[in-house]
């Protein structure tokens, strides 16, 4: 019998391995060069040196803001953000599941010992029975199912790791954007205070002249209207400041208030010009963590197709056992009394109404769907990069004009006040000049906010930020548990 079992195992072991279908991950056509504006330029390169430059440019991009308060804030957010900790747990779960898959195909062994006593009814005395058994079983991997499941589990672990990276990219960009929003809101508050002061000076001036009979009530009411309108705008900027602080508190997990204390006081808006030459490899979009995660999802599904095909094929298993039994407990350890058994089993599906065939078709359709999702993810990534570049180019072209407009408005406001004091300018013209000055200040501040937001979005769309960061500590916190 033993020779027959081994012969069958050898014959079936020569069967062909079922492999996952080959998939082609095609990327959408990208422009040969993505240009921001001179002197800053984003060029797509293909050489290894360009790839290294790209990694250096993308890693730690927020450090170009040269803001120590922001750097401390980002460290606190990465350490305390609940979503980031949850991503770390998901990664650890994927590792544990992969370990279960790898162990599932190994041989299984069991040991048992039993004792029993029986007494016939109405009779004296009793009889005892004792047994000891050792058994092992192993399902042979005839078609490569073990390899397919291992590759699928490994792809799952890698995908979970890329999802952690994608979460880091999003979290970093979201935190920097919230920080910029806070600084912009504080700057708007200061601008609103300057506006109120300017409008109050004009109102006081015309009020004194009205009391002296030199101005009309209409002119006094015009100045008062502009003053009250300026006062009405101030609470909006206070609301924006509080919303930004609340968002940062949420990103910190609602617990780390120490990191927010330095931010309560107004601070300077960071200056971020960006690199003068940003060289990016041609396949930069495929290096984004979320795109890589989708690519690994395709690999997982490809292995699912192989496993669905294997499930329709015969399976072969080996089992063996060694057991003893005796009326005396001490005799169950007698080797001479042991009985050994070796058995092989072959099973094949004959008819299931087409369930397995349908599963194969379903798995292939899911593979096609995963490929489409991958392509869609790439197209979305490309659109995000192009949108950020377009917005950045527009805002940077406007920057010089806004600055020149502010310089001219400040000179005009000084001249208008001088001419008004000299009696050469009407009060309404003075108010118009001051309104132009207020608008120029607000426009330049809005332009700075747009430029900073565009840089943040550009680095986020390029998948920058995670390169020098470790995975969350929670991803490994359970590694030594004995439970």
Automatic annotation (TrEMBL):
> Which family is this protein grouped under?
Belongs to the outer membrane factor (OMF) (TC 1.B.17) family.
List locations, semicolon-separated. Cell outer membrane
Q: Which InterPro entries match?
A: MdtP/NodT-like, OMP_efflux
Its protein name is NodT family efflux transporter outer membrane factor (OMF) lipoprotein
Give Gene Ontology CC terms. Answer: cell outer membrane
* Signal peptide start-end: 1-20
Please report the record's description of how this protein sits within the membrane. Lipid-anchor
Main location per the UniProt record: membrane
Write the record's keywords in alphabetical order, separated by commas.
Cell outer membrane, Coiled coil, Lipoprotein, Membrane, Palmitate, Signal, Transmembrane, Transmembrane beta strand
Specify one Pfam family.
Answer: OEP
**Gene3D superfamilies given for it?**
Outer membrane efflux proteins (OEP)
**Alphabetized GO MF terms:** efflux transmembrane transporter activity
Coiled-coil stretches, from where to where?
378-412
């Amino acid at each position: 019998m033993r020779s027959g079992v081994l012969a069958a195992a050898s014959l079936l072991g020569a069967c062909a391995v079922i492999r996952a279908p080959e998939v082609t991950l095609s990327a959408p056509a990208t422009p040969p060069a993505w240009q921001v504006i001179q002197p800053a330029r984003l060029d797509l390169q293909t050489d290894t040196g360009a790839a290294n430059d790209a990694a250096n440019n993308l890693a730690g991009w927020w450090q170009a803001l040269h803001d120590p308060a922001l750097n401390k804030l980002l460290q606190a957010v990465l350490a305390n953000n609940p979503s980031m900790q949850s991503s770390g747990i998901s990664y650890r779960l994927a590792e544990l599941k992969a370990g279960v898959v790898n162990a599932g195909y190994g041989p299984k062994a069991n040991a048992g010992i039993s004792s029993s006593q029986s007494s016939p009814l109405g009779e004296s005395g009793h009889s005892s029975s004792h047994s000891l058994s050792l058994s092992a079983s192993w399902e042979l991997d005839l078609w490569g199912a073990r390899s397919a499941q291992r590759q699928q589990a490994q792809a799952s672990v890698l995908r979970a790791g890329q999802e952690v990276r994608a979460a880091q990219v999003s979290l970093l960009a979201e935190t920097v954007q919230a920080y910029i929003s806070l600084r912009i809101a504080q700057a708007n508050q200061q601008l609103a205070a300057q506006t109120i002061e300017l409008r109050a000076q004009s109102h006081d001036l015309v009020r004194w002249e009205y009391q002296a009979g030199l101005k009309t009530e209409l002119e006094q009411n015009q100045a008062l209207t502009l003053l009250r309108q300026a006062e009405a705008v101030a609470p909006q900027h206070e609301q924006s400041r509080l919303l930004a602080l609340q968002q940062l508190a949420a990103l910190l997990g609602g617990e780390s208030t120490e990191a927010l204390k330095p931010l309560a006081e107004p601070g300077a808006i960071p200056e971020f010009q960006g690199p003068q030459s940003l060289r990016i490899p041609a396949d930069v979009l495929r290096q984004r963590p979320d795109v890589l995660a989708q690519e690994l999802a395709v690999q997982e599904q490809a292995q699912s197709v192989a496993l669905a095909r294997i499930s329709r094929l015969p399976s072969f298993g080996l089992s063996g056992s060694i057991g003893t039994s005796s009326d005396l407990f001490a005799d169950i350890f007698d080797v001479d009394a042991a009985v050994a058994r070796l058995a092989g089993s072959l099973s094949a599906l004959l008819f299931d109404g087409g369930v397995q065939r349908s599963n194969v078709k379903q798995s292939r359709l899911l593979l096609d769907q995963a490929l489409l999702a991958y392509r869609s993810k790439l197209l979305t990534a490309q659109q995000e990069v192009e949108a950020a570049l377009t917005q950045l180019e527009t805002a940077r072209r406007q920057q010089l004009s806004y600055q020149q407009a502010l310089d001219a408005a400040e000179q005009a406001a000084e001249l208008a006040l001088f001419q008004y004091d000299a009696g050469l300018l009407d009060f309404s013209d003075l108010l118009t000049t001051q309104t132009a000055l207020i608008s120029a200040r607000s426009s330049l501040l809005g332009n700075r906010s747009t430029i900073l937001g565009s840089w943040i979005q550009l680095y986020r769309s390029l998948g920058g930020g995670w390169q020098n960061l470790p995975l969350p500590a929670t991803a490994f916190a359970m590694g030594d548990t004995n439970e």
